[in-house]
Amino acid sequence: MKRNKWTVRLGALALAAALTGSGAALAAGGDEDDPLVTLSYLNQTAIPQVVAQVDKHTAARQEELLRSFAALIAQYKAEAGGQSPGGSGGASFTLVSMTAGQTMSLGVGCEVLLRVGSATVHAATSPALIDTTTGGSVDSGASLARNHLYLATIPDRTLAASAADVKLLVRGAYTVT
Question: Would you call the peptide bond into 35 cis, given omega within 30 degrees of 0 as the criterion?
Answer without folding.
Answer: no
